[in-house]
Amino acid sequence: MTPPPYAGRPSDLVGRQIAGYRVESEIGHGGMAVVYKAWDLRLDRRVALKLLAPELARNDTFRRRFTHESRVAAAIDHPHIVPVFEAGEADGVLYIAMMFVDGRDLRRQLDREGPLPIEDATRIAAQVASALDAAHDHGLVHRDVKPGNILIAPGIDSDHPEHVYLTDFGLTKRSLSLTGFTTVGQFVGTIDYMAPEQISGKPVDGRCDVYSLACVVHETLMGRSPFERDDDIAVLWAHQNEEPPPLTGQRPDLTPAVGGVLAKALAKSPDDRYDSCRAFVAALRAAALPTPRQPDVPEPPLWARPVFARDQHT
Ligand SMILES: Nc1ncnc2c1ncn2[C@@H]1O[C@H](COP(=O)(O)OP(=O)(O)OP(=O)(O)O)[C@@H](O)[C@H]1O
Ligand SMILES: [Mg+2]
After folding, report:
1. Where does the record place a coiled coil (predicted)?
2. What is the position in ligand 1's atom list of the atom closest to the CA of 310?
3. 174 CA distance to ligand 1 centroid (A)?
4. Is 306 helix (H, G, I), strand (E, B) or coil?
5. How many other CB atoms sit within 10 Å of the CB of residue 27?
6. pLDDT tens digits, residue range 64-108?
7. Of 215, 4, 241, which is closest to residue 121 (Cα–Cα)?
8. Mutate to test the pocket of ligand 1, among 21, 34, 85, 167 (most ligand atoms within 8 A of CB)
9. pLDDT reported for residue 262
């Protein structure tokens, strides 16, 4: 009898075949899934194969939601959304086969190189924003916008130095608490980007993604998310009750107007935020002053900066 795919360590799967895909190597893992580089044996092409932790498949509500949301996400054809090729279940494991993005995620980018100039931050945010607004037009709220779900690949020219993809629609671990999967009051995963209305369990719409995107932009500019604290309870409290920190420091590109735009996008009430991600990014762009560049030392494009190893994600 063939052992179930998750019988051993994730590396045990390398070389094995799952649902028509040959697993080649592990790309990384988050809290509830492992992502592999894999080969689609039917269509002869490389894919990223995401295998969800087996306990998720045992939760009926999560499965239904997974099936529904992966269908909706697969139906959105958008240049900044990672195309989903197939989602299903094999040997009791839920999987998603999607386009393999040869690049790095924004989490790794920030960890390795620190904050970005506002032009870079705005360009990345604009691409994520157009993906999110398209999803909202399809009635889909992402709910887990964070640097780890923003993938950055090489762009086509110096005007478009990187191409950004958003991934992981509907796969938020927080949704598990709504499905009764976790015990009451137990939060799983990062809460650094979570909108106040998500924390209090109110219904959410696209404006919760505006808030999370603003947290990401804040971190991209300042090197830390706006409500980073020592413990989770303090983070949750800060999202709901505290003002975001001002943009301070030696950065001439971070004008008070930029701080004002972020403060509006981070408003506690969705009604006080921008009503679309694009509107938020347009305001950001208008508020930003061009940063003086050294003419003799051109900045390498993001993707050309030091090469990263696709080692395990922690
Ligand atoms: N389509 C893809 N192409 C290339 N790499 C990918 C793709 N999708 C995900 N990855 C990478 O796989 C790794 C694991 O992703 P995963 O979504 O499991 O974790 P995460 O988003 O970091 O954390 P979380 O579990 O909190 O969502 C990340 O490093 C991510 O950059
Ligand atoms: Mg992810």
Report:
1. none
2. 29
3. 16
4. coil
5. 20
6. 777 777 777 788 899 999 999 998 888 888 899 999 999 999 999
7. 215
8. 167
9. 97
* Residue with CA at minimum distance from ligand 1 atom 17: 30
Residue 60: CATH number of its domain: 3.30.200.20
Chain centroid to CA 306: how far? 22
CATH of the domain at 251: 1.10.510.10
Q: What is the CA radius of gyration of the chain?
A: 20
144 in catalytic set: yes
Beta carbons within 8 Å of 180's beta carbon, 6+ residues apart: 61
- Kindly report the pTM of this predicted structure: 0.86
Question: What separation in Å is there between the alpha carbon of 167 and the centre of ligand 2?
Answer: 7
Residue 169: domain span? 104-288
Q: What is the pLDDT of residues 98-131, one digit of tens each?
A: 999 999 999 999 999 999 999 999 999 999 999 9
- Indicate the helix (H) or strand (E) that contains 57: helix 54-57
The answer on 128 and 223 residing in a single domain is yes
Give the Å distance between the CA of 256 and the centre of ligand 2. 32
How many whole angstroms separate alpha carbon 65 and alpha carbon 108?
29
- First-to-last alpha carbon distance for the chain, in angstroms, is 33
Which residue, chain included where needed, has tokens 């998603």? 96
Cα–Cα distances (Å) from 18 to 29, 74, 136, 238, in that order, read 18, 20, 32, 43
In this structure, the answer to whether residues 152 and 230 fall within a common structural domain is: yes
Ligand 1 surroundings by CB, under 6 angstroms? 27-33, 35, 48, 82, 98-101, 105, 148-149, 151, 167-168, 189, 313
The ranges of the chain with pLDDT < 50 are 1-2, 173-188, 308-314
